[in-house]
Design goal:
The protein has 415 residues and is of the alpha+beta class. The chain is built from 14 helices and 14 strands. It has two domains: 193 residues, no CATH class; 181 residues, no CATH class. Helix 4 crosses helix 9, helix 10 packs across helix 12 and helix 10 runs parallel beside helix 13. The protein is elongated.
Length: 415
């Protein structure tokens, strides 16, 4: 029998019992839709995590002072003063894998502008390269320069949350705010980033020259800094940058081979890699669980095809009597099973895509500050359709083979 004719006969046979066919493919529809939705959600979560890490900075290493032990008491990381601004300059000059560095000093203070006041989450003293390292952009105005850092100029750039709560959301470039009663001129506004992975508002921030924060706000005459932000030249060179920074600081701090480091280097790629592994495993796990529905749907197809063989026994006998071969009967019922499963898979794809879009919109609407990306996995769609067709072929083979083995004479006598 010609393949086109076989397909037409299969569609006609399925169309005779539309309700039964619809209920038969329901398991396949649910299975395919579940695979697409769960894989989409898992991949969207992984993409959002990646975007959040990108918002924290470009290939960032974070160097902080180390710990010390005295009097039998082990003090926590950051409890000793070991880092100075020249350490950051040396990293840029002597570490080939390092693109840029910025000293960092932090402060806690209340901001005052007119009769308004506000306490930001972060007041960071950094240098002119911090925008590149922290993956920030200026929305309006300018950023401070190396000359501003050298002169300890009283200038700053602020985030959107500070603008909204301290200055009423107005155009504040050129405005004056006070930090611990010290006047700072606002020279720029940062592009908003929103909340990070831990729910912290990244826009509730003030950036100023680290020399200004150190000398004028903190009132310190020492040259130590709280940390160093380091940007590697590429993601695949982060470990190389980590090793070079570690070796350089050991040399500069005269640390002997057997002595512990007086600093700690935090590599953000390690956390990102762990989270990527977790999301990949979750994607595979959820996809595998959802694929069980496809197997259940396959059992339903086999059951309904066995019923169909019984109902059409006399038809099979007539076909065999007029010259149809056993393989024609086998092919006929096998095509019907594959058509049923593939049709269910196509409906499941459409339904799954719609549910994934709806879930993304709902997440962004219900979760404050959420930026849940929409990710529809083409691989999941292709694999689901192929698997659905394979399920139809696998579970449809036994009923098809049973139909092809019927005796023509006994089939013609069947009532």
């Amino acid at each position: 029998m010609h393949p086109t004719l076989t397909l037409r006969v299969a569609l006609r046979a399925i169309g005779k019992n539309k309700m039964r066919a619809g209920l038969t493919v329901l398991g396949i529809v649910i299975g395919v839709a579940a695979v697409i939705v769960l894989v989409s959600v898992s991949q969207s979560a992984g993409l959002m995590i990646h975007q959040q890490f990108q918002s924290l900075g470009t290939n960032v290493l974070f160097v902080i002072p180390g710990s010390q032990q005295g009097g039998g008491i082990h003090l926590p990381t950051g409890s000793i003063v070991t880092l100075v601004a020249t350490d950051a300059d040396a990293m840029t000059a002597e570490c080939p894998a390092v693109l840029a560095t910025s000293p960092m000093v932090s402060a806690r203070a209340q901001l005052v502008a007119g009769n308004q006041n506000w306490s930001p989450d972060q007041i960071y003293g950094v240098n002119e390269k911090y925008l590149t390292i922290g993956n920030w952009r200026i929305k309006k105005g300018d950023y401070f320069t190396a000359n501003d850092v050298h002169a300890a100029a009283k200038v700053c750039v602020i985030g959107k949350t500070v603008v909204d709560n301290l200055l009423g959301g107005m155009d504040c470039v050129g405005a004056t705010i006070r930090i611990k009663n010290i006047p700072f001129q606002v020279i720029g506004i940062l592009e908003p980033k929103g909340a990070n992975l831990f729910g912290q508002d990244q826009d509730n921030i003030v950036l100023a020259p680290y020399t200004t924060i150190k000398k004028r706000v903190s009132g310190s005459t020492f040259n130590n800094i709280d940390a160093v932000f380091v940007s590697a030249r590429a993601t695949d060179r982060m470990q190389e940058a980590d090793d070079q920074v570690t070796q350089l600081l050991r040399q500069r701090h005269h640390i002997r081979h057997s002595t512990l480091d007086d600093f700690t280097v935090h590599n953000s790629s390690e956390v990102a890699n762990v989270l990527n592994i977790i999301t990949t495993v979750m994607t595979l796990l959820l996809g595998s669980v959802a694929s069980v529905s496809l197997v259940v749907g396959g059992v339903g197809i086999m059951n309904i095809m066995l019923v169909s063989v019984t109902e059409r026994t006399r038809e099979i006998g007539i076909r065999l009597a007029v010259g149809a071969r056993s393989r024609d009967i086998l092919r006929q019922f096998l095509v019907e099973a594959v058509v049923l499963s593939t049709l269910g898979g196509a409906i499941g794809v459409a339904f799954g895509v719609l549910v994934a879009i709806g879930a993304t919109c709902a997440a962004n609407a219900l979760l404050s500050g959420a930026r849940w990306p929409l990710t529809i996995s083409l691989n999941a769609i292709v694999v689901s359709l192929v698997f659905a067709g394979s399920v139809g072929m696998f579970f449809g083979y036994y009923p098809a083979r049973k139909a092809s083995k019927l005796d023509p004479i006994e089939s013609l006598r069947y009532e």
